[in-house]
Amino acid sequence: MAYHGLAEFIADLEKNQELHRIKTFVNPILEITEVTDRVNKNNGKALLFENNGTSFPVLINIFGSDKRLAMALSRNQTDSVADDINSLLDIPQGNIFKKIISAIRISGIIPSRIRGKGICQQVINMDPDLERLPVLKCWPYDGGRFITLPMVHTMNPETGKMNVGMYRMQILDNKSTAMHWQIHKTGARHFEAWKKSGRKMPVSVALGGDPVYTYAATAPLPENIDEYLLAGFIRKKKVKRVKCITNNLWVPTDADIVLEGYVDPREEPVIEGPFGDHTGFYSLSDKYPVFHVTCITHSKNAVYPATIVGIPPCEDAWLIKATEKIFLQPIRITLQPEINDLHMPDAGVAHNLVIVKINKTFPGQGRKVINSFYGAGQLMLSKYIVVVSGDIDIRNYSELTQHILKNTDFRNDLFFTSGPLDVLDHSSDTFAYGGKLGIDATEKLTEELYRRVKPVISSIEKLTSRVRGMIIKDNSNINIMNNIGIVVTGVNQHKDPMACVKLKGYFSQNEIKDLFRFILVVDHTVDVNDLFIVAWQILGNSDPQRDIEYLSDNSLFIDGTMKCFRKEGFPRRWPNIVSSDIETLEMIDKKWESLGIGRFISSPSGKNSSMSNDGKDEVVIKKV
């Protein structure tokens, strides 16, 4: 069913036993985040915080399971959306009848405009006060409180085309916020166009409404495709929009809350951030435009929607899963027809790692796909791309690892390059630009086997005990996986900034350098037996061109440590990891029973905080 406001969605969640109401007071400052992080990472329900110090309940974790995500999309399962898209796009070129039927089907969900007031304008505040909203401060070193699920409506002044994007908004005072639209986003391009025109840029921000709107705002659509067309297609009912009170933008009539206003391109930008981001690290402070609120409207029973991000997986992981399914067929048609499947693992936080499975029919096809991805929409920001073929489940990581090792010749199948990176990537020496790696792990055809290097089989059993002894002597932890030829070890750069260099030298010895295919190095604070955390750290902290080195034709040394401890330093600020502070942990521990959620859940931050440094948003190097 299509929902008219979050209140209807809440009723459906309760009917399906997918919601927990919390009547105990929980503070939007840090506490709601800590409760949600525990529940989300343990596959818990959506949460409605009814007692938060404001008149608006806070609804959170609505996308945090396959079932709730499907409900949010008005479906029984998310796969059905992909099926509909497949049937719509998979039409023989000459079948005019089917094309006409499809065109009629689309025409029924084209967004429309209504006259008069919408449900979202039942209450109109011409003297707006953002302090009335239960805006969260998520993590201890956030720069302030952030609106985390805003649907930001902007318009191109030249074409009149509207866009809906999701850009976090930091509260500056009761009538203004920062607007974090990054350089690769449509909102930023619209801003530059308004700057050239010399006029104020109208902006309206919708919160809530049918939850499918929120998904559509996150979807990787081409710039001129209306997000509400996608929303209407998914929920099988067109979106009705109403004109805002103080500007000429149009928003969904059934939104819960709408913030109307403008951004003045002539105004100096402000410092925004830090913010505990979906990368699991703080995105550090930077300059962004100011959004001035001229009016706040809302429905009579409005609910404030929010989400939290941090060390993965969080709620956004389910949105990524939906995008993998929904956009596979469009990617296939517009990019590469040989693609069978696409997966962005949680540890790769969407842009650090993409796994692609193809139907391989000719030599060089894996490399062709890698090159095409580096020039395709948001996929251009991918740091690591792995292409496989054959009978392989790309979501079974053990099977996938074995497949990669079996089908990859490091000297021939690794393609290093450089290009644009996500603004939030902290590992590269330069902002939003750095190294990339494509791995052709497809099953090789005869033409591709020329001059291939065969892995040297070493006596692992004979040397493993020696390796373990040497590493433990100088480092705090090690995990040797003989069955797949991978070793993970931690180095303490606090004590010895040259520890990583020394370790590389040790593994470069002739009798050892072919012993392992991968030597993965992380900081000593990382649990080397937690392979998810290891993967997250390696992917987040490495620049492939700078941090991957050949020890031999068959052995790679990958440095996933913090680079700020290097003897030569690092040209940019290095962010800290995201975790709750001890005071918040203890407060929620005491409140837990009163929340009525059920069995006690330990805080993920209890373990993750061990990776934090100096208790700040960024790692500060103390001079010796």
List key phrases describing it.
624 residues; five-stranded mixed sheet; alpha+beta; nine-stranded antiparallel sheet; 19 helices; Pnp Oxidase, Chain A; UbiD C-terminal domain-like
- The CATH H-level superfamily of the domain at 6-76 and 108-306 is Electron Transport, Fmn-binding Protein, Chain A
Enter the CATH topology name of the domain at 6-76 and 108-306: Pnp Oxidase, Chain A
Instruction: Give the termini distance in whole angstroms.
Output: 63 Å
- Count of helical segments? 19
Q: Which sheet architecture does the biggest sheet show? A: 9 strands, antiparallel
From the spread of the alpha carbons, the general shape counts as globular
Radius of gyration: 25 Å
By CATH reckoning, the class of the domain at 6-76 and 108-306 would read: Mainly Beta
User: How much β-strand is present in the residues?
Assistant: 15-25%
Q: Based on helices, strands and strand pairing, what is the structural class?
A: alpha+beta
Number of strands: 30
Average pLDDT figure = 90
Fraction of residues in H or I helices: 25-40%
Which runs of at least 5 residues are low in confidence (pLDDT < 50)? none
| CATH architecture classification of the domain at 6-76 and 108-306 | Roll
